[in-house]
Input
Amino acid sequence: MPQIVQTKDLISVIITVLNGAKWIDGCMKSIINQTAVIKCQINTVSEAQTPLVSKTMTSPTTSLLPAKNNSNDDMAFVQLPKQATSIVRGSSESQPKVVLSVEICVFEDCSCDNTYDLLCSWQRTLRESYKIPMIILRNNTGQPKGVGYGRNRAIEASKGNYLCFQDIDDEMMPERITKQYALAKQHKNAIIGSKFTRIPNNATCRFTKWANDLSSEQLMIQIYTSNGPTIIMPTWMCHRMVYNQIKGGFSEEGQGCPEDLIFFYKHLDKNGIIKRVDEYLLKYRYHNEATTFSVQEKTIRHIRLNHLLHNILQTKPWSDGFSIWNAGKQGRKLFRELPMEQKKRVAAFCDVDKIVNKPLAFPLCISAKCNLQ
Output
């Protein structure tokens, strides 16, 4: 039997949940089904010896902020793929195999269903059957604090140097952690995403196709569309330093705040990059109770426009003048929301003529600009 060698890397799965009882089982099962979860102690002796099952560690269940538990006696180990040669030190059975440690940190945000009871049940199961530490933080204030607040508290309670974000209503594909970690290891200043499928599979077809079909270059370019971040939040994984570079972490404004978009832009402002594993590693659930529906379009538009103004339109060559590629409703809306100084720099509206299938430009005179206002 090959020797198992533990890396110093710990993956913290970060979850926030509000009234998510109906999805907890599916989410947790997808985590324990991650490839090669090994329920044994690290064996640093000769190959002839059989690895031992490690002792149980009790993870704390806490209110709001837990005391730190620094014990590393027991973890779940995820074996890396053989093709990740920079991580796995050899594919031969006689060579050591490198494994990862995994923990789960959940913020329960004042649910009024049986979410907390189910989480406690899973905490016992993960500890006793899989040796996966699970920390539960509970908001007992009687008022939900919001996704951003919950993520910040869960991250503060976690010990991992890599953060894997997961929504309770979604499900990981078996190789998600393994493959995203391999890419994150190479790009420690990146947010790592992945392609995804939808539950049900006919939900938001146009958005899903757009997100999954983006090239690696487009991930950094198409950041101002109405679709939000070019990699969806439930697929994010990153090194902890990516999070630490953003002062205050995620926005804690609460319900209706697109905390993922705000964090995404701040990350780019810090010269962070966006990478994606071009495989389907998440089942992304669509339902009417999703937090995304609490965010108004005008809020997203305001954040997007502010970032566009300060990072693009006020710099060369855009400050010398630019065109708006949309002669319809969205283009006119963008024009109306521009400050007067920027409106003066709009040279034309551009669009594609559906009949002749070619680009058309509509130059703007001063009177036309006045009418659009």
